[in-house]
DUF4268 domain-containing protein
Amino acid sequence: MFSKEEAAQLRKLFWTSFGKSFPRKWLLYNTKIKGLAFKFVADRKKAMVCLDIETTDEIANLLYFDQLLSLKTLLEQELPEVIFDDSHELNNGKTIHRIYVPFKGKFSIHNKNTWRDCYEFFVTKMSKFELFYYEYEDIIKNI
């Protein structure tokens, strides 16, 4: 087991190594839609790339999620393993709408031997996710 400090250092090293290994400007929070953000997620048991919908207006959340759901078939052509979760619970107990692609390989942020495969997954899947967003951005924004 790792102490809190050691675990925090490993997380920091994981993300800085990712940034150095694959230097690129990611879309992430720059979707130009408040409450709609792409995220990389990595923890002790899993990794994924996500599009989270969490505006302060629940009606807007539903509308954005429905708009993206209407594009599901098109997104599945690029990312067949994509999952649409209309009630994803975060660690803090908050429920959001999340569209994500899970990393299917063995991964733990505490195991450096699993990092490289995860990094390659992040780059491949997030690039496809972003391209999809750019292509259909006008439709997504049109709620």
Remarks:
- The chain is about 45% helix and 20% strand.
- The mean pLDDT is 95.
- The longest strand covers residues 95-102.
- Residues 4-141 form one domain.
